[in-house]
Amino acid sequence: MHYLIIQNALSAPLFTQVRAALGKGSFSDGRATANGLAQAAKRNLQLAPEGHAELLDCIAQALLEQPLLQAFAMPWHVGRPMINRYAVGMAYGMHADAAHIGDLRTDISYTLFLDDPASYAGGELVIDSEGQQFSFKLPAGSLLLYPSGALHEVREVTAGVRHAAVGWIQSRIRDAGQREIVAKLKAVPPALGQGGQHQALAVQTNECIQRLVRMWCD
Ligand SMILES: O=C(O)CCC(=O)C(=O)O
Ligand SMILES: [Fe+2]
Q1: How many angstroms separate the CA atoms of 18 and 84, rounded?
Q2: Which of 8, 29, 73, 90 is deepest in the core (most CB within 10 A)?
Q3: What's the CA angle centered on 84, arms 81 and 86, to 5 degrees?
Q4: In whole angstroms, how large is the CA radius of gyration of the chain?
């Protein structure tokens, strides 16, 4: 599975603001923002966006400007996140995210972990990719990006409370495999360096990258 972890994905002041909103906001049943099978699997709470729209937009904008995210996701749009809360006994069973959420096609899902992992038990985000399971319980401030097409679940929290800011990204390249090829190739020209003996190879690699992007982008 092609995924990426970005540590300290938000600036410290913005992260502090997000943490502060957890204590101030009112949380309601998360099933309001899911449909069908996903709704049946969902047992969590969500921060009511009223009064927090600006903060949620700031998170989306900060992620859009994140260089590591740009290289990995090639984003057209980063959707405004929802902030969820899992208290003891809450979980989100195995589900597929909807292909469209709001006005986005969901190519990449993101979870920004908001709590110290030692402060809660359970609550792992487990992703099932072609029969292989990947389990994530990341430090506060770490962002996980993973393909929206992969089945995933949040395991039951058995002590403490888990919070996360969760959202979706529409990429310029919808196919995860093609996106991976472009992202990997993009690392090559900087490694070859400018002006050295490999200059011609760097230019040629960049030419191929641009041709692939033109072929595969929306
Ligand atoms: O809380 C998470 O890490 C993921 C939640 C999720 O899968 C969703 O809201 O669709
Ligand atoms: Fe999900």
Answers
A1: 12
A2: 73
A3: 160
A4: 19
- The CATH code of the domain at 4-171 is 2.60.120.620
- Count of CA atoms in the C-beta half-sphere (13 A) of 94: 8
For atom 10 of ligand 1, the residue with the nearest CA is: 97
Contacts of 89 (CB under 8 A, 6+ apart): 43, 156, 157
Pocket of ligand 1 (CB under 6 A): 84, 92, 97, 111, 125, 152, 154, 164, 166
Question: For residue 111, how far is its CA from the centre of ligand 2 (angstroms)?
Answer: 9
Task: Break the chain into its structural domains and give their ranges.
Answer: 4-171, 176-216
Share of the chain above pLDDT 70, in %: 100
Give residue 110 CA to ligand 2 midpoint distance, Å: 9
Structure tokens at 9: 């994905």
Q: What is the dihedral of CA 183, 181, 167, 87, to 10 degrees?
A: -100
Q: With 90 as the cut, is the pLDDT of residue 112 above it?
A: yes
pLDDT band at residue 184 under the 50/70/90 scheme: very high
